[in-house]
Amino acid sequence: MEPIEGKLLGKQVSYPQKYAPEILVAVPRSINREIYNLHNHTLPFIGVDAWHGWELSFLTQKGLPVAGVLKLVYPANSPFLVESKSLKLYLNAFNMERFGCTPKEGIDEILQIIKNDLSQLLNCEVEASLFLHSTDAAPFDFEAFTLLENNSQIETIDFIDFTENPDILKSSGSRKSGVVNVATHLLRSNCKITHQPDWGSAFIYIKAEQLPEETSLLKYLVSIRNENHFHEEICEMIYKRLFDIFSPDELMVTCIYTRRGGIDICPIRASHQHLIPLNLSNANVLSKKLLQQ
Question: Does the annotation count 167 as an active-site position?
């Protein structure tokens, strides 16, 4: 039987020419979580999935095009996630549809439709905003994170694992509680169905009695390079490995993926609410883009 994730992925599908909510595909989160002994009623994290749709457009009733960046946010404890190609097709179906006498009226109408359709599909509340303008002063949640690949010894390290290997993760040896606040722009995994490459950045905060040695952490993140999973699943896999190995007091993992097909996905998983990145998780804020976005 064909997996529900493969209903559209890897297939040639014509763009719908009219509003088409029926094209949306919901994927049960439990499909992947069971692999890592994650169960929806006892998740070791809270969080959200933040999506950016960079190509949303529609017409007003007078035919004036309106174009902007759509931001969607919905909770990590929702029973389903939306499959990205189906969302891409759904959003492009609005291109020649008409909403509102003015751009503002049209935006209000289209956002309400999108929120209603996705909330019903995913069985959770979905927040949505449309941004018509960007700003150089956009907020950023990750200024304090140190890039692992800036290690002065990086060129002397041998990277030999390119399939996810949690055995790479080693403790720094210290038994004194501390904090690691690190990032990498070298994240790469593959689409679960098409195996096309997905590029991204990972941001990790961990407070624990035993902390991961940073070189081993970078090696581990590089080992994900040939994994075939959705973005949300990669984020949860990283979180669960760190959670199981280091028993942290606090943990946060955020993955910001490069846009593909006009969409990027930014899953956020954290042990505590105060660790959730405030701007990225807020549907009403368009935060600063990364280089590869």
Answer: no
Catalytic residue among 117, 141, 198, 264: 198
What CATH class does 146-275 carry? alpha beta
48's tokens = 């959200």
Q: Is 198 a catalytic residue?
A: yes
Catalytically annotated residue among 191, 235, 255, 266: 191
Strands (E), 3-116: 26-28, 46-59, 65-75, 80-82
The pair of three-digit structure tokens given for residue 1, joined into one six-digit string: 């039987």
| C-alpha–C-alpha distance, residues 203 and 166, integer Å | 17
Strands (E), 92-173: 127-131, 146-147
Question: What is the dotted CATH code of the domain comprising 4-131?
Answer: 3.30.1130.10
> Worst-scoring range by mean pLDDT, 52-56, 61-65, 135-139, 163-167?
135-139
Q: What are 156-162's contacts with CB under 8 Å, separation 24+?
A: 157/215, 157/218, 157/219, 159/219, 159/222, 161/219, 161/222, 161/223, 162/222, 162/223, 162/225, 162/226
Two structure tokens written together for 292: 């590869």
User: What residue ranges do the domains of the chain occupy?
Assistant: 4-131, 146-275
| Model confidence pLDDT, tens digit, residues 12-55 | 667 788 999 999 999 999 988 988 999 888 999 999 999 999 99
E-only strand ranges, the chain: 26-28, 46-59, 65-75, 80-82, 127-131, 146-147, 178-190, 197-208, 250-257, 263-270
